Amino acid sequence: MPDTSRQTLPHVHDVIIIGAGPCGLAVAARLREKAPGAIFTDEEHRRHRFLHRYGRSMPLKQVRNGRVTCCGRPTASDTQDLDITVLDATHDDWCGRWNKLFKCYDIEHLRSPMFWHVSPVDRDALLGYAYSQNRENELLEIHHCVGKEVSKHMRKRTRTQKCSAHSACNARVEINERDRIDYFNPSQALFSDHCRAVASRYHLCDGVVKKESVQDISFDVVQGISVNDEPLFTVTTDRGPQYARTVVLSVGPANQPSIPRHAFKAFSATESLPQVCHSTQIETFPDTVVRTRMTNGQRTKVLVIGGGLTSAQLSDLAIRKGVTKVWHLMRSPIAIKTFDVELSWMSKYRNLEQAYFYSADTDEERLQMVRAARGGGSIPPRYHKKLKDHISRGRLELRTETKLVNAQFVTTEAGGRWKVETEPAIEGIPSFDFIYFATGIETDVAALPYLQTMRETHPIDEMGGLPCLTEQLKWKDDVPLFVTGRLASLRLGAAGPNLGGARTGAERIALAIQEHFEECKREDKISGDIAAADKDENEWERFVLGRGSKYSCLVEH
């Protein structure tokens, strides 16, 4: 009888990526890219492509004895053939939740600049895609970033006066005029289409993303599946277990959104709140309750709580959808910032603060730098202008440095409404038909249910709710669980949760995964010429990528 035991063994993936957002797409695309150029200069990119194509076919002359050695044709990088699968809790397509929220909020343009994208090919890939599709009209210029925003008076003062450390001249951001084209906001439609183009280019579309919710992750030898006692990841989902040699965690904020419950004293901690919603849990906007009252001709009032961009977007959208009046409460003074972080963290080439961050000695110091750089929520000037327009027309009431201290749900003939109290008290504040909390999500790795097993069996240090990863974004040196996005902020910096951190994290993870499988091949003792050829090619690539020495390439055969 034929042996059917091999046919019943579960499949072991090379890589499982948990999360199909931009960070997950950036990692998957980078693993499939032969010649990544998004973090290299043009000259480095040309040299890498030349050596990757001709390096092993060029004759090598030995310095000592003059002997010429001819090598064979190069082979593709190992990461090109990796078996990759992606698990996402909400959608079976790339960026499904991302696109859903943008559509729900009716957001036309991203906040990020053009050089923040998911493609590993070129630093200007998104810009090139816009021009190749004749969609440059969908780019929105970001003001107050590049030279023309500096007045003639300031230019004259710069030439005639020395700038002290705390002068206005010193506070001015220095962005080279040649980089003006980078400081535009891409439209949501353009960015989404570019992500689909990246996924299509690397054959990441059909069947790669699966809608499965991860419940647990463990790393150990799996009886009956592991070969030579190789430890594997067991990723348990709502559809059963899956097995992989490496796992990448790209889950964004990761934790579930929570509504501050201190103001809802009449409700228990587990009791649902009527006509209250967190911004990340919105299905329709405004809610059905508000829509019904608007249809019936009733005056509607909505309360939005939060100090970031999402809160401003909800206030603006509610007014555009026909809500009679919106009240917007912020517990801090309003912060007007073009981006989540300052330009010194995210500029195209001169990331001064990022350099300081990498030179920090401890994770405590890095955590302080990240918190200081991101601060609380902030609103870009474009949306601040919209809010001021709504205020001038009497459609919006904006109160800063104000907290919600008590809320009571009162049922009347016209339906239920919230009666609220604030600190400081606001005289004449009305009752509200609905309350939206745009208060963000607090990241805490200790509260993630699917990481409890990993925290018990392979514990690592944690700081401020963030895991203390290796510099390769690995859980531990001997545990190939990689983390990117907000959870990797202690290694990626203040821009880690943003699109800029997605590509940087993808580069580190891809290099580490390639090294991991190279090490596995060495341990398996791949024989003969194949092993020698692979070693020669890898030494060339390591040298070009700045991770090896050219002298290691000059071995005698």
Automatic annotation (TrEMBL):
<keyword id="KW-0521">NADP</keyword>
<comment type="similarity">
    <text>Belongs to the lysine N(6)-hydroxylase/L-ornithine N(5)-oxygenase family.</text>
</comment>
<dbReference type="Pfam" id="PF13434">
    <property type="entry name" value="Lys_Orn_oxgnase"/>
</dbReference>
<dbReference type="InterPro" id="IPR036188">
    <property type="entry name" value="FAD/NAD-bd_sf"/>
</dbReference>
<keyword id="KW-0274">FAD</keyword>
<dbReference type="InterPro" id="IPR025700">
    <property type="entry name" value="Lys/Orn_oxygenase"/>
</dbReference>
<protein>
    <recommendedName>
        <fullName>L-ornithine N(5)-monooxygenase [NAD(P)H]</fullName>
        <ecNumber>1.14.13.196</ecNumber>
    </recommendedName>
</protein>
<comment type="pathway">
    <text>Siderophore biosynthesis.</text>
</comment>
<keyword id="KW-0285">Flavoprotein</keyword>
<keyword id="KW-0560">Oxidoreductase</keyword>
